[in-house]
Amino acid sequence: MRKIKVITFSSLDGVIQAPGGPEEDPSGNFKFGGWSVNYGDETMGQYLDKATGQPHDLLLGRKTYDIFAGYWPFKGGPMAEKINKATKYVATNTLQSTTWNGTVLLNKNTLQQVRELKAQEGIDLLVWGSANFLQTLFAEKLVDELIIMTYPLLLGKGKRLFEGNAAPGSLQLTDHVVSGTGVIIAQYKPAGEIVTGEFEEEEATAAEIEQRKSKG
Fold first, then answer.
1. Model's pTM, two decimal places?
2. I need a labelling partner for 58 at 20 to 30 A (CA). Which of 2, 5, 151, 207 fits?
3. How far apart are CA 16 and CA 32, in angstroms?
4. 68: helix, coil or strand?
């Protein structure tokens, strides 16, 4: 079975919209495109190299795919080579054709196609960006690994990592590091159902009982 792994850049208040540049996704009149650019350092670079070092394919939402298709085919370097070489699976209800080599459109029964893709033997599937598509993956419990890079800033409005539709469940922290620029990188995997409980209170003293009576 192939694993679905998510790498996402998030502000402290959970906004993941347009971290890479002003024109990346200005929808909703978002004014802070490119907010992640000034926080890169060696620690983050090394972690991303490790996270993307194994062979993988890409699983992308339509909007992120459009951004990638307009950028990476025209670039060089190790990251561009990885992305251009990878098979790009695109979850879309509208796209019918594409000119970027290695693209496979999941445009029929998209959710079922993702499930079938995940059930295959093969290399893992890496999700970048894809804010809208992520909501479906979280709701359907299809994410096997989640890397959240949390930046020390507040963005207010914008597309968020969790929009309130994620299926409830607990997570296990499997790795973490803090960059020199204050970015907290945390890696999680699903850890089963949520276990609830309550804190046991010590028996109230006579003084506490009297205090409560006086306030009543």
1. 0.88
2. 151
3. 11
4. helix
